[in-house]
Design brief:
Elements: E1 40-45, H1 61-71, E2 73-78, H2 84-95, E3 102-106, H3 111-114, H4 119-131, E4 135-136, H5 162-171, H6 178-181, H7 193-201, H8 215-223
Parallel strand pairs: 1-2, 2-3, 3-4
Length: 231
C-alpha cells in the first residue's frame, strides 16, 4: 500500500491489462489549436451509421460543416460508404449536399467470398464508383477475419481478389494498399507496428513505435515536428 492509500500490484504475472493504470510522470504546458493555419484535409473520418448501431455518427451535418469552417478544414474523407442503398444514403447526406467538402469511400461485401462468388466484389466496386464513391476502404478484417466458404482466412494477396484490385486500377480509384506490404507471416495477419515502421523506411522516412500516456506527451512530438500515427 502506498502513502496515498493506493494498492500496489506485487505479482506482475497477475496484472490484467484492464487493471493497468499508468501514471504520467511528464508535466508540460498544453496549447490548444483552434484553427489550422492552412486549409486542411481530414483524410480519415467515420461519418456513417454502420458502426454506431444505425444512427448517424454526426447528428447534424450543418453543425459539422460549420465546425469544419471554423477549424479551417477544407474537406474530409468519409470511410463509411458501404455499398448499395447505404452508400446512396451517405452520398446524399454528405457528398451531394456539400459538393467538394466530402469524399465518401465505399466498401465491398466480403460475404461474396464465403458464397464462392468473388467476381461480385469487382462488380460491386464498379457500381459504387458509378454512384459516386471516391475510393475503396479495406478494413483490417481482410487478413484477420474474412474467410472463404471453407473457413480459410483470405489474405490481401489472394488470387481471388485480383479482379477487385484490377477493377480499382482500371477505375483509377484509391485503395489503401499498406496491408499487403505489412503482412506478418508469423503473426498471420496485418497490423504489426514493427512491420509498419519498416514499410515507412522504404520511402526514406524514419519511424519508431512508442506508447504515449497522455495527449500532453503527444504535444511534445508535435512541437518537434514529428508526425504521429495513433492506434
Amino acid at each position: 500500500m502506498t502513502d496515498d492509500g493506493k494498492a500496489v500490484m506485487t505479482d506482475l504475472d497477475q496484472l490484467r491489462l484492464c487493471d493497468y493504470r499508468p501514471v504520467p510522470s511528464l508535466s508540460a504546458p498544453s496549447h490548444r489549436v483552434e484553427r489550422a493555419c492552412a486549409p486542411a484535409i481530414d483524410a480519415h473520418t467515420h461519418l456513417g451509421r454502420w458502426l454506431t448501431g444505425g444512427t448517424w455518427a454526426v447528428p447534424s451535418t450543418t453543425r459539422l460543416a460549420d465546425l469544419m469552417d471554423s477549424c479551417n478544414i477544407a474537406a474530409v474523407v468519409n470511410m463509411d460508404g458501404r455499398w448499395g442503398a447505404e452508400l446512396e444514403a451517405n452520398l446524399d447526406r454528405y457528398d451531394r449536399s456539400y459538393p467538394g467538402r466530402f469524399a465518401t469511400f465505399c466498401h465491398v461485401d466480403w460475404a461474396a467470398l464465403a458464397d464462392g462468388e468473388p467476381e461480385r466484389l469487382a462488380a460491386s466496386l464498379a457500381d459504387s464508383v458509378a454512384r459516386g464513391a471516391r475510393g475503396l476502404k479495406v478494413w483490417k478484417d481482410l487478413g484477420l477475419h474474412v474467410r472463404d466458404g471453407q473457413g480459410r482466412l483470405v489474405m490481401p494477396d489472394d488470387p481471388r481478389l485480383s479482379p477487385l484490385w484490377e477493377q480499382a486500377a482500371e477505375l483509377d480509384v484509391p485503395v489503401p494498399d499498406v496491408a499487403r506490404e505489412v503482412y506478418d507471416k508469423n503473426f498471420g495477419g496485418t497490423g504489426n507496428w514493427i512491420f509498419n515502421t519498416a514499410y515507412a523506411g522504404r520511402f526514406g522516412m524514419e519511424a519508431f513505435v512508442t506508447r504515449l500516456r497522455s495527449l500532453t506527451e503527444a504535444e511534445l512530438f508535435i512541437a518537434a515536428g514529428i508526425g504521429r500515427l495513433v492506434t
